[in-house]
Each structure stands twice: as C-alpha cells, then as structure tokens.
Design brief:
81% of the residues lie in helices and 0% in strands. The chain is an all-alpha fold. The chain folds into two domains: 19-146 and 154-166, UbiA prenyltransferase (Tetracycline Repressor, domain 2); 170-301, Four Helix Bundle (Hemerythrin (Met), subunit A). The longest helix is centred in the first third of the chain and has 24 residues, at 53-76.
C-alpha cells in the first residue's frame, strides 16, 4: 500500500505528465527515429543512425522544447482549459503555476545545452524555436488563421531539425511533409470548433468565432481535398512500399471525416472528428515501418 505522501507524489507526477503531454512527446520521438531510419537517412547503416549521438541530442532537445511549449501553453490557457477540459484542467492544477514555470525554464535550458553538443547552428535553431513557441502562446494563438498556421508549422518543426541534420532534399520528403502539415492544420481547426465555448468566453479570435462554424467547415473540406494531392503523389509517383495501404486508409477516414463534419454540432461531435485526425497522425508514424518491411532486417544483417 502506498502512503499518503507517495500517493501525493504520484499524483503530482501524473499531473506534470498531463501538462507536458508525455504521450505526444513519445510519439514524436518514435516519429523522428523512424523517419530518420526509413526516409531521411535510408542510405545509411541502421546502427549508424540508431546510435548517432548527434541525432539523439536533436531528438532530446526537440522533446525538451516541446514539453516546455506545452507547459507555457498550459500556463496561458489555464482559464480556457477549465471551461473546455475541466477534468484534465483539475489534474493539471495539482502542480502550481510557479513549479510549471520552473520546469519550463529548466527544460528550455536543457534543450539549448543538448543542441550545443551538435553545433552552434543547432543552438540558434532551438533558441528561435523556443522563442517562436512562447510568442505563439502569448500572442499569435488568439489570432484567426495566423494562429492556426503558426501552430501547424511549430508542430512539424522538430522534423525540420532532423531534416537539416541529414541534408536529404529528396522530393518525397517534401511531399510527406505536405501531407503531415495539412492533416495537422485540419486538426488545429477542428480543435477550434471543439473549444469554441472556452474561446468565446475568453475572447479568443479563432476562425469559428470570427468567421463562423459554416466557414470553418468549408475550410476543413478544402484542406481535406488538398490532402488528396500528396496522397496521390505518394501512392503513384514514389516508391513507398506497403505504406500505400496507410494512405488508402487515410482517404477512407478523410471521407468519413467529411461526412461527419457537416452533421457535427456539439463538442462531442468535434471531439470524434479530432480523434479521427489524431488516429491518422499516429497511424502514419508507425506505418513508416511499411515503406520497406525487409529494410530493417537487411540493415541489421
């Protein structure tokens, strides 16, 4: 049996894990390594990629920066989250705002230290990334369109760090990035529809509030159609192995998303749409393994 003090510490841990969204960071770490092995450095031996200390430091610096970003975002959105996500907000509040800020500065400091192991350019990159996340949370998040675009760009930035490191400029990488960017942009707009109650109460100028739900749904439909362009290119113009099954599945899920979108009216409906997009993103990460199912075994041997 746990003592009261141990239970308190455990609750604090889960609270902080919730604030930094540890599950999201774990997915990003897996995504960075899989994309490095199968896409960005596919011509390098597996051992050389997996045990590359520079890559490890870039991944850890990305994770620390993202965790810090979630903390500062939670700090600014605490009142809004109390309306939109009351249960999660109550868990997050088990850790004081001062403690969160201490963690925020420590994580950002560690990110810069780890980046310095790679190069001075990496330090500049992550310093700018940290500033951009803060500026987004402080100012840009409340602006329609600009906030959505900034959030989508910041989400894919960790992959850009690894992309620069490997200097792989193959066209297929940009097409993959286009697909990911569009899905993330759809997710951000869907989140705005999901959180409209809290945004309206706290005067956030999101797309649904400024332009209305119908316009937001039209924009989501347009983004979904745009997503079909990189899907078509990846399936028919590039050799992505059995990963094409993932893109076929994505088309089916986007069609379901489209059908549900125009019938959606409540927070629960938008949450379902949000989860469809989250599933596409997470499934996309693990489907990278399907690019070449023999590749891993061959490179181990």
């Amino acid at each position: 049996m746990l003592t009261r003090k141990q239970k308190h510490i455990l609750l604090k841990f889960f609270s902080m894990f919730s604030v930094v969204r540890g599950y999201n960071i774990l997915i990003i770490i897996i995504a960075q390594y899989l994309s490095s092995i199968y896409i960005l450095a596919h011509n390098k031996p597996l051992r050389e990629v997996v045990f590359d200390l520079n890559l490890l430091m870039l991944v850890l610096a990305s994770s620390a920066t993202i965790a810090g970003g979630y903390i500062i975002n939670n700090f600014y959105d605490s009142e809004k989250d109390l309306i939109n996500r009351p249960q999660k907000s109550m868990l997050d509040r088990l850790v004081s705002q001062n403690t969160k800020l201490v963690f925020y500065f420590v994580l950002n400091f560690l990110a810069v230290i780890m980046a310095s192991y790679v190069s001075f350019r990496a330090v500049i990159f992550f310093s700018l990334y940290i500033f951009a996340i803060w500026f987004y949370s402080h100012k840009l998040k409340k602006l329609p369109i600009v906030g959505n675009l900034t959030s989508s760009i910041l989400t894919i930035t960790p992959f850009f760090a690894v992309f620069i490191y490997y200097k792989n400029f193959e066209t297929v990488i940009f097409v993959h990035a286009m697909f990911l960017f569009l899905i993330i942009a759809m997710r951000e707009l869907t989140k705005d529809l999901e959180n409209i109650k809290g945004d309206l109460a706290l005067n956030y100028k999101t797309i649904p509030i400024v332009y209305g739900e119908k316009t937001s749904k039209t924009m989501l439909t347009f983004l979904a159609v745009l997503t079909l362009i990189p899907v078509y290119l990846l399936i028919f113009n590039f050799n992505i192995g059995k990963m094409n099954y993932f893109f076929y599945l994505s088309v089916v899920l986007l069609f379901i998303f489209f059908l549900l979108l125009w019938k959606s009216k409540t927070k629960t409906h938008y949450l379902i749409l949000h989860n469809i997009l989250k599933f596409i993103i997470v499934a996309g990460v693990f489907s990278i393994l399907l690019i070449d199912v023999d590749l891993l075994l061959n490179r181990i041997l």
